[in-house]
Amino acid sequence: MVFDYAPFLVEAGKIKEFARALQLRNPIYFDAEAAKSAGYPGIPAPPTFTTVIDFWNDHNFYQLFSNFLKLNPNNVLHGEQAYDYHKVIMAGDIISAQVTVKDQFHKKGKNFFLLETVYRNQQHETMAVGRATIIEMTEVIA
Amino acid sequence: MTELPAIIKNPIAPIDLVKYSGASGDFNEIHTVPAIAEEKGLSDIIAHGMFVMGWAAAAVEEWFPDRQLQSFGVRFQAVTHPGTVLVINGSMLTDNEGEIQIKDQQGQPKLMGTFVLKSGSI
């Protein structure tokens, strides 16, 4: 079972907005010259920017949940998240992400989903691999 | 094992979560609308897990400005409400492998994780 996000253009302005929202101060996320001075070919995306690719997508996380996993996206919790970083995602990259359900099981009244997302650039190079544990709450949280 | 300097963040404000919702595209109203959070049995809105992980990644970057992550994994341990001051601690097990913990000022764990830095600088 795989779910394909739509190809996503990583825009410098979106990186800046995301970096500001996280109160990042490193100028590499805001200024191409600063990024080049630090050794990057352009403006890099912060490590957790993949979230933006998942949510601000023409074929997005909500569709993944509602149509593919048959979950209400408002009834889930994020239990764990891990990334392997192969290459740094840069402004201007077009990232295609594909989600695979690696496992799903029921434990202590909750449904667990282990999702693996592979992020590839326009040259089909693997940039990052995300592994998420998503927990469906069958009752209220608290 | 080498301890890394503790980082104390400013208290999380509701507007921080509004901004992060817009920037990330995660518009689950549990993060921004108190009435929705209360419907779910919570006392107030809660920070996005990925907002807290974003701060964790920023801490690693603050500790190692000239290095890149090779891998980074976290477990979210408890929800975080506005007003909370998060304290980030870390330690290095080897030159490249470290651990990170985020707690509130009362010591309640919010996030724990491990990271591996790429060898060499950017």
Summarize the structure.
The complex is a heterodimer of chains A (142) and B (122). Chain A has 142 residues and is an alpha+beta fold.
Please tell me about this protein's structure.
Chain A has 142 residues and is an alpha+beta fold. Chain A has one domain (2-137): Roll (Thiol Ester Dehydrase, Chain A), CATH 3.10.129. Chain A is built from 4 helices and 6 strands; from the N terminus they run E-E-H-H-H-H-E-E-E-E. In chain A, strands 1, 2, 3, 4, 5 and 6 form a 6-stranded antiparallel sheet that branches. In chain A, a hairpin with a 5-residue loop joins strand 5 (110-120) and strand 6 (126-137). Chain A has helices at residues 12-21, 32-37, 50-55, 61-68, and strands at residues 2-4, 8-9, 76-85, 94-107, 110-120, 126-137. The radius of gyration of chain A is 16 Å and the shape is elongated. Chain B has a 5-stranded antiparallel sheet, covered by helices on one side. Chain B is an alpha+beta fold and 122 residues long. Chain B contains 3 helices and 5 strands. The model of chain B has no long low-confidence stretch (mean pLDDT 96). Chain B has helices spanning 14-24, 34-39, 49-63; strands at residues 2-8, 69-76, 86-92, 97-104, 109-117. Chain B starts with a strand and ends in a 5-residue tail after the last strand. Chain B has one domain (2-117): Hotdog Thioesterase (Thiol Ester Dehydrase, Chain A, Roll).
